[in-house]
Write a structure and sequence with these properties.
Layout lengths: L1 H25 L9 H10 L9 H11 L9 H32 L8 H19 L2 H7 L4 H21 L3 H19 L9 H12 L5 H22 L2 H16 L6 H23 L3 H17 L3 H7 L13 H9 L10 E3 L5 E14 L2 E13 L4 E3 L8 H11 L9 H25 L1 E2 L20 H4 L5 E2 L3 H16 L1 H14 L1 H7 L14 H25 L3 H27 L6 H11 L12 H12 L8
Antiparallel strand pairs: 1-4, 2-3, 5-6
Helix pairs in contact: 1-4, 1-5, 2-3, 2-4, 2-25, 3-4, 4-5, 4-6, 4-7, 4-22, 5-22, 5-23, 7-8, 7-9, 8-13, 9-10, 9-20, 11-12, 11-15, 12-13, 19-20, 19-22, 20-22, 22-23, 24-25
Length: 637
C-alpha cells in the first residue's frame, strides 16, 4: 500500500513536471490577443475587467506579477506563467483521479493490488493525463493569461476531491472533504462559472456512495437534486444574495431615510446571524445533513467573497473600471451580467417573430439626492404566439444572423422556420460544427488554423492539397490514436463499473452537450469557441487513460510472453500522447510571439501627442490597454 502510494505520487509529479516544462517552453512572453491584455492590465493594478470579472484570477495574477521584480516588460510573462502552473496542476490531479477510478474498476483496495495491476494503473494515469497535456484546446489555454486554465484546475481538483471523499470511510472525516469541495466551488466562481456544471454528477457520486442498493430512479432524483443545487448557486447565491441586499437597501434608504449602504450592511448581519443560529441548532438537534449543508454554504460564501475585490477597487476609480461596480446598484448589474442580454432557452420566438407589445418590466434605479430613484423600466417584449416554439435555436434580431439562418437551412426570406429546421440547426451547427468539430480537433486532428476549419481526414491524399493548407502548422493528424483509447476506456467502464460509467458520462454530457444547449450559440462567432468545452475533453482524456487498462486486458489474452506484452502495452499506450506532442508543438509554441504588442505600439505611435484614439472590439482595444497600463507606453493617448 505505502509503496504504491509513493509510486503514484512520484508518477503524478513526473507528469506535472513534463507538462510544466512543456508549457514553460511554449508560453507566450507577452500579452496575447482577445481578453489577455485586459486581464493582465487588470491583474497588475487590480482594476475592474468586463463582467462578471474574475477576482480570484486577478488577485493571484497580481501575486505572480511580483515575480517580474519591477521589470514591466516581464509582467505579462509571469501572469501567463500562472496559467502554466494551473495547467500543470490540472494534469497532476487528473493522473490521481484516473488512478482512483481505475482502482474501482479492478474492485480492489490499493493494498490488495498486485505489482502488475499497480503498474497498469500508473500507466493509465500517466497516458490519460499526458494526452490531455498535449491536446489542442487545453494546450492553447495553458500558455496565455486567460481564465480557462485556472478554471480547468478547479474542475480537476473538485473532481479529484469528490473521488477522494468517496474513499473515506470515517463519516466525520468525509464531511470535511465535502466542506473542502464547497470552498473550492466558491473559489472557482471567482475565476469562471464552468466549474459549477459538474455538480449534478457529483450529486450522483454522493448517491452511489450513500445508497447500498442504488436504482435508476434514485440516481435520477440525485441528478435533479444536483441540478437544483446548481440553480441555487448560479441564480440564488451569485446574483440572488446581492439582490436581497439591495431590497434591504431600498427599504433603509428610501423608507427610513438612512445613508447608502446601511441596508446592505444590515442584510449581511442578518444573514450571518441566521447562519450561526442555524449551525447551533443543527449541532444541538443532531441534524448532521443540515449541519453539513450550512457549513458548506459558509465555505462557499468564503470562496465567493473574492468578488468584494471588484466592489472595493472600483471605489478607487481605476482607469479600467468597467460598469463601475463601486456601489451595490452597479455591483448587482455587474454580477448579473446584464449588459450581455439573454436568449430564450426552453420556449421563445424564432427569427421571423414580430414584437406585438412592449411591457414595462423590472424597475431600473439610479442614485439621486440620497435616494434610489426609478428612472425607467426594463422593456419586456411580447412576440407573436404563432412565431414561438419549444427549445428555440433559430432566433436573433441581427440581420446578419437572419440571413445566415436562411442560407444554412435553405429557408426563403419571410418564411417561418419549422420545428424541424430548429432542431436541424441545433444538431448540425450547434452540436456538430460548434462542438463535435472541436472534439475531433482534440482527439483526431485538425485541418488548419483557419476559422471554421474542420477535423482532419486522417488518411487523405495530401498531394492534391494547396500548399497553404498542406504546410499549415496547425494541420495536425493524430491518426485516431487518442480517440481509440477513449473508446477503449468507455467500453471498459461500461463493462466493469456501471456507477463510475454513469458519473463520468454525466460529467461529460454536462460540460459538453449540456453547455451547447444552454449557451444556444448564434450562427456565427467572432472566433473559435472550443475553450468553452475543455471540461468535456477532460473527461474524454480520463476515458483515454482507462483505455490503457482495456488494452492491457486484451493483450494479456493475445500475448503470453510478459516482456513482449509489457513492451507492446507501453509503446501502444504512449504512442497517443507522443503523436499529440509531435503534431501540436509547432502551432502551440508561442515563445517568440510579440506581434500583438508591436501592433498595439504601432497603433499608438500613429497618433499625435495627447490624441484621442477610437477603437472597436477586443483585439483593437485590449493590447493597447496592456501597453499603456503595464508598460507605460504612450499614456498620453
Amino acid at each position: 500500500m505505502q509503496q504504491f502510494k509513493r509510486n503514484n505520487n512520484l508518477v503524478g509529479w513526473i507528469v506535472f513536471a513534463i507538462s510544466l516544462v512543456t508549457y514553460t517552453l511554449t508560453v507566450e512572453p507577452t500579452a496575447s490577443f482577445w481578453d489577455c491584455g485586459e486581464f493582465i492590465a487588470c491583474a497588475y493594478k487590480l482594476q475592474v475587467p468586463h463582467p462578471p470579472g474574475a477576482p480570484l484570477f486577478l488577485l493571484l495574477g497580481r501575486m505572480f506579477s511580483f515575480l517580474a521584480l519591477g521589470d514591466v516588460t516581464r509582467v505579462a510573462f509571469w501572469i501567463n506563467m500562472m496559467s502554466v502552473v494551473s495547467s500543470a496542476l490540472t494534469i497532476l490531479f487528473m493522473h490521481w483521479t484516473i488512478v482512483m477510478i481505475g482502482r474501482k474498476v479492478l474492485r480492489k483496495s490499493f493494498a490488495e493490488l498486485t505489482q502488475s495491476e499497480g503498474i497498469i494503473l500508473l500507466l493509465s494515469g500517466a497516458v490519460g493525463s499526458l494526452i490531455y497535456t498535449f491536446s489542442d484546446t487545453f494546450w492553447f489555454s495553458a500558455v496565455e493569461a486567460e481564465v480557462y486554465a485556472m478554471s480547468s484546475f478547479f474542475t480537476a481538483i473538485v473532481v479529484w476531491a469528490a473521488f477522494r471523499w468517496e474513499l473515506v470511510e470515517n463519516e466525520a472525516e468525509a464531511n470535511r472533504w465535502i466542506l473542502f469541495i464547497a470552498y473550492l466551488v466558491g473559489l472557482s466562481i471567482g475565476v469562471h462559472l464552468l466549474n459549477l456544471v459538474t455538480l449534478p454528477a457529483l450529486a450522483l457520486l454522493w448517491y452511489f456512495k450513500k445508497e447500498a442498493k442504488p436504482t435508476y430512479k434514485g440516481g435520477f432524483v440525485a441528478v435533479l437534486v444536483g441540478l437544483f443545487i446548481l440553480g441555487i448557486i448560479n441564480s440564488g447565491i451569485i446574483p440572488g444574495l446581492p439582490s436581497m441586499a439591495f431590497w434591504f437597501e431600498l427599504q433603509f434608504v428610501n423608507s427610513l431615510g438612512m445613508s447608502y449602504g446601511m441596508g446592505a450592511i444590515f442584510f449581511l448581519l442578518v444573514l450571518l446571524a441566521a447562519v450561526v443560529l442555524g449551525i447551533r441548532y443543527s449541532y444541538k438537534a443532531g441534524k448532521e445533513v443540515l449541519n453539513v449543508a450550512l457549513f458548506s454554504f459558509v465555505f462557499l460564501l468564503i470562496g465567493y467573497s473574492t468578488y468584494t475585490v471588484a466592489l472595493v477597487r472600483s471605489g478607487y476609480n481605476p482607469p479600467i473600471n468597467e460598469n463601475d461596480p463601486s456601489n451595490i446598484l452597479n455591483f448587482l448589474k455587474y454580477l448579473k451580467r446584464e449588459q450581455y442580454g439573454s436568449r430564450s432557452l426552453l420556449y421563445g420566438p424564432v427569427y421571423t417573430a414580430q414584437i406585438e407589445e412592449f411591457k414595462e418590466g423590472e424597475e431600473v434605479y439610479k442614485m439621486k439626492d440620497g435616494k434610489y430613484v426609478v428612472y425607467t423600466h426594463k422593456p419586456e417584449y411580447v412576440y407573436q404566439k404563432d412565431q414561438q416554439m419549444l427549445l428555440p435555436r433559430v432566433w436573433s434580431n441581427s440581420g446578419q444572423h437572419v440571413a445566415l439562418y436562411q442560407d444554412m437551412l435553405g429557408i426563403p426570406a419571410g418564411q417561418k422556420p419549422g420545428f424541424g429546421d430548429n432542431l436541424r440547426f441545433m444538431f448540425s451547427h450547434q452540436m456538430g460544427h460548434m462542438y463535435m468539430r472541436y472534439l475531433l480537433w482534440n482527439f483526431v486532428g485538425r485541418e488548419s488554423d483557419q476559422q471554421d476549419a474542420w477535423a482532419i481526414n486522417a488518411f487523405e491524399d495530401t498531394s492534391k492539397l494547396p500548399d497553404a493548407l498542406k504546410n499549415n502548422k496547425a494541420r495536425n493528424n493524430y491518426f485516431y490514436l487518442p480517440l481509440i483509447l477513449v473508446l477503449f476506456g468507455f467500453y471498459l467502464l461500461y463493462r466493469k463499473d456501471e456507477k463510475d460509467f454513469l458519473v463520468t458520462i454525466m460529467m461529460f454530457v454536462l460540460t459538453g452537450v449540456g453547455l451547447v444547449v444552454y449557451l444556444n450559440s448564434p450562427p456565427v462567432e467572432p472566433r473559435e469557441r472550443d475553450y468553452i468545452y475543455v471540461g468535456s475533453f477532460y473527461f474524454l482524456a480520463i476515458w483515454a487513460g482507462l483505455g490503457v487498462m482495456q488494452l492491457a486486458e486484451w493483450l494479456s489474452l493475445i500475448v503470453k510472453q510478459p516482456q513482449v506484452r509489457w513492451a507492446l502495452l507501453t509503446v501502444l499506450s504512449f504512442s497517443a500522447p507522443a503523436i499529440l506532442a509531435q503534431q501540436n508543438w509547432d502551432d502551440h509554441d508561442r515563445s517568440g510571439r510579440y506581434h500583438q504588442i508591436d501592433f498595439a505600439k504601432n497603433l499608438l505611435n500613429s497618433c499625435a501627442p495627447n490624441a484621442i484614439l477610437f477603437t472597436g472590439g477586443d483585439n483593437d482595444t485590449f493590447p493597447l490597454w496592456y501597453v499603456q497600463e503595464v508598460e507605460g507606453f504612450r499614456t498620453d493617448v
